[in-house]
Design brief:
The chain is mainly beta. Strands 1-2-3-8 form a four-stranded antiparallel β-sheet, with no helix packed on it. Strands 6-5-9-10 form a four-stranded antiparallel β-sheet, with no helix packed on it. Strands 4-7 form a two-stranded antiparallel ribbon.
Length: 108
């Protein structure tokens, strides 16, 4: 469906799916660097076109060896008609952004 890259991380979004509690964003996160990475769930921000921002809490961290991947499964309570942007922020890399859903497109 779409992908986004920082110098050390590749995020491939494979599916947007309606769920009872919102919109599920499913994909895979891959370490494309040559060193092990610690990737906190808080590195992934979803922002809707109304300006609301959603960052997963809980402190979960994936430790990825070079070339290794882990699933990404986020759910956002996206209001009808709003678009959705994924922001990947894993310092010291510059944040990267990808439009997942255009405004007015509705659910998946």
């Amino acid at each position: 469906m779409s992908s986004i890259e920082t110098p050390r991380l590749k995020v491939e979004i494979s599916e947007l799916r309606n769920a009872p509690d919102g919109l599920k964003v499913l994909g895979v996160v891959t370490n494309i660097s040559d060193t092990e990475l610690e990737v906190p769930i808080s590195a992934f921000e979803l922002r809707d076109t109304g300006g609301s921002s959603y960052i997963a809490g809980g402190g979960a961290v994936a430790r990825l060896a070079p070339g290794r991947s882990t699933p990404l499964d986020l759910t956002v309570p996206l209001p009808d008609g709003r678009g959705l942007l994924l922001i990947v922020n894993l310092p010291p890399d510059v944040p990267a952004e990808q439009v997942l859903l255009a405004e007015g497109a509705g659910g998946a």
